[in-house]
Amino acid sequence: MLMRKGQQAPRTVCLGLRARAWWVLRKNRSMTLTELLLALADSQHKCADGNLGHYLRELAKAGILSRERVPDGKLTSNGVYRYRLVKDLGAKAPVVRRREVFDPNSSAVYPLEVPDG
Q: pTM of the prediction?
């Protein structure tokens, strides 16, 4: 079988945990942290829940994701947060910085909103 030369597909492999989480969020549009961890985390990532939890909270502060508390079925639990994609920025994952979120697709910067309180 002969292979024809032509355009190759765009790169579909990413290495970082946050970049892979962004891809999964873009595909599913709405997930909890537990669902993301079940889909992504393996033994090579130390403290994956803390890493992804921080990433999702910062994206929510920047307005890229929305978050709502949903019940998880446990009697004494306050529930879990469900994160929904509000702004689909593109294939490259947003980068969380100290006081902002940088979008490498459009070079836009989203400031983090400080909650009142």
A: 0.82
**Alpha carbons 11 and 92: distance in angstroms, whole number:** 11
Give the pLDDT confidence score for residue 117 in this predicted structure.
46
Residue of 112, 110, 108, 107 whose CA lies nearest to 58: 112
User: What domains, with CATH codes, occur in the chain?
Assistant: 17-111 (1.10.10.10)
93/18 Cα distance (integer angstroms) = 7
The residue-averaged pLDDT of 45-74 equals 93
Q: Are 83 and 25 in contact, with CB atoms under 8 Å apart? A: yes
Triad 82, 85, 88: Cα angle to 5°: 165
- Nearest alpha carbon to residue 31 among 68, 75, 76, 62: 68
The separation between CA 2 and the C-alpha centre of its own chain, rounded to angstroms, equals 40
